[in-house]
Every structure is written in C-alpha cells, then in structure tokens.
Amino acid sequence: MQSRLPSPDWAHATTCAPFSVLQGFDDFFEDLAPWFERHAGARAHGHLFAPERDEFAGGGASFSGGISDAAARRDYDPAGFLRNLIWDGRGECQCFMFGPADRQEIAWPLAIDRNAHIAVATGAWAVPLFRSGQDVAVLRKRAAEQQRIEAAFLDILRAPQVRARFGPAEFADRIDRLAAFRAQLTRRLQVAGQTPFRIGYGQIGDLEVLNGLPTFLETDARLDAAPPWLKKQNPGPLSARVENFDEMTRALADPDPCALFDGNLFEPGHGPALRRHVAAPRSPLLSLPVPGGPVAEIEAWLAAPDGLGPEALRRGFTRKTLDDWLRRHPGHRSFTVIGHPQERAHRAFCRHVLPVGPDSFPRLCRALRELYGVPLPEGGPGGPGYDAAAHRAAFLGFLTFLKGQLGGQSALRVDPSWASQSVLPEGMAQSLLPDRIIHAGTLGCDRPSLPQVSGKRPRRCPIRRRSGRFP
Length: 471
Known about the structure:
Layout: E1 19-23, H1 25-28, H2 32-40, E2 43-47, E3 62-63, E4 67-68, H3 71-76, H4 78-88, E5 94-98, H5 107-112, E6 116-120, H6 126-132, H7 136-157, H8 168-192, H9 207-216, H10 245-251, E7 278-279, E8 285-287, H11 295-303, H12 319-328, E9 333-338, H13 341-353, H14 362-370, H15 388-406, H16 424-428, E10 436-439, H17 443-446
Parallel strand pairs: 1-5, 1-6, 2-5, 8-9, 9-10
Antiparallel strand pairs: 3-4, 7-8
Helix pairs in contact: 8-9
C-alpha cells in the first residue's frame, strides 16, 4: 500500500500550503499576533508549540477540524500536528510564533518544509528577560539556555539539506534601499565638504552641493543661487542616444552586484610567475606555460624551428630580464597553451599525488587518505592489487577533492598544477598578457600564425594523447 505521509528524504513540501514562522518578533512587539491578523489579513496563531498548550488564533481551545490545544497530543507527533493544522486552515494564510522557550522537536520538519517561510530575529529572547527584573544569577542561567537553543535552531537552518528560496522582489527592494542610502550619505558628505568631490548631472542645480565644493577646497566663497546657464548636456532620454537600446536593456537585465556567479570568487589568485616563462633560443617566441599542461612537448616544439633542443631555451626571467628580452625582439609573439581540465587534473594526479618521489606532495597525500577517504596506495602505483579499477576510484576521489578545494572548502594550498585555467592567465596579465591562448588539441593548426616572425616553416607539435591505461 502506498503511504499517505511524505517521506522526510523527499525534496518537496511536507505541508499542503505556504505558512509563515516568526521567531522573536513577539518579544519586540506586544500583541503581535492580533495586530498581524488585522493588518496582513492572515490567521495569526500564538506559540503553537508552547510547553503548556497550543495558542490558537483567537485564544480558543480548539481549531478547525477539531484539533485540540492539548500539548500531550501535539507532542506525540509534532510534524503530523502541523500538517493537520495547515490542512484544516487551507484557503487562508497562516502564521505562528516560535521561540527558544517552545518545544524544539518541530525545528527540523520546519527547516526542510519548502512551504515554511521562516523569519528569525536573533537575540530577541533577551528583551523579556531584561524586563523581568529577576536576580542576575537566574537571568544568566536562563539566557545561556535560550541562547544555546536558538543557536541549535540556526544550525539546523544552515544545514546542507536545507535549501533557501531567493526572493527577487525583496532582493531588488534591498538593493534600491541601499542605493538610496548611499545617495543620501554621499549628498550629506558633499554638502559638508568631507568627501572627494563629484557632481553628477542631477546635482547641477543643487545649490547646497555646489556650495560644498568651496568647502571642500577650504575657501570662503559661496554662491547665492545656481548659475542659470548650467544645463544637462544630454537632456533627452537614453533611448535616443543608444542605437541598440533594446539589446542593451536585455544585456543589462540580469546584473550581478554581489558577484554570485564569479567562478573565481573563492579560489586564491596567482602571481605572474615570471620564472616559468620560456623563450625560444633565437626566434622571437615566448611561451607562458600553464602548470599541469604538456610543458615538455611544448618546450621541444618551441626549440625545433631553431634546430636546437629544449636545453637551449631561455628560462628564469625576472622583471628586468623580461623587459630586456621584449626590447631586443621587436615583433615578438607570446602565447599560452591550455588543455582539457580532466586531462590536466589526471596529469597532476599522476605526477604529484599518486607516485612516491621528489615531485609528490606527501602532506597532501596524507590529507587525502585521512580526511577525504581517497584510496591512494601507500607505496605508489606499483604495489599489488592496484589495477585500473583502483586507479579510477583514486582519481575520482581526487576530482571530488578538487571540486571542494577550488570552491573554497579546504585549507590546503591550491597548487598551480590544478588551479583553474581562468585564474592563471589573470596572474600572467600582471606582467605580460599573452598574444594568443591556444588549446592543446589545436596547437598544430594554430602554430603557423606564431613563427611567421621567424620566417621558418612550422612543424606540428607532437602532443601525445593519454590512453585509457593508468601508469
């Protein structure tokens, strides 16, 4: 038989209609529930999960559907009691008060219910304690207990299983209020002459702002009236000044003022790393290598047009020697090569994580085993029992670690060998922006446009594709 009760593991609402939970607000405002009913048009209950009884709206001993206010019946199944309450009051908006003094068994069902709109005023429990006039020792004990309960409820709301709902209207309203406050604050600073001065088009006729400029310049001269000849340079609407106004409106329709979609928000930046730059022996070609890429193949390919080996390449640049090289090679070309992230991560895994040797990172390997459960072999990949399946499991564990580390969820150092390929060119741009960013798969096709400065026929770079075999 199919059950009628929702599973707690299902990612949907466990009640039939939206409702609101207000924690702490009735401690600030007396008789909040009746006021809320009059002004919001909602059925506002008191503390439904109070220890003594259920405080239904209107103060009655029962609610629609014959639900009793007996605390014992409610505490037998708090989640079921809430589902029945919302079901019997369907068709109208319901809300109830909540706080640290209430029974907390309902905290987790509230947190996972998508119909629950929860608003918490933290620390509001201190207001009635302050007004009670009790002994300090008693108040201190009660305050510590209620603070602990409130902290536990907030931890539940911050749990990974709890998902918040973004309110576009509330967010836009907050951004507008912040912008209005900033404009008001800027104007007050301008009038007082306490800020680096800037006068916008909308303030050209504002006499107080214009007189703030002499104050800022520490002069006594003042204007009695705004000059009549001041006028806006662009009095018409913006649509008359922009040819593709509709296209611009669509492009600016979804701004990101909080940088929520910045992929590198949590990943640390990297410097220019001049000592990794490699120049051809004679040709005016400069490679800005990305760590973790096919560096050896690129170096051999870079030295080939001059008929020399990779040992003849020029390395170890400093800011001074790099500027000198750029001056001595007019018409130079610089480039960097990026590859597929999975191939790059596997190359770093096989060089720094899997083996035991001078290039391995023992501290990282120990942390992967102990903290992240990655099944790395103790003595390297040559031990008994390490086959393709074990290699696949270890590499997948390493990829899981990389996802969290690049998202700012690990205190371990982000090595350049597996740092995001969008962060590394940003560091290179601090000293020299590459002329071209080439994908490793198309390196042989992109090469002809680079060595034209040397007048020599290019050769295809022999980038070896890794097969499915593990080392």
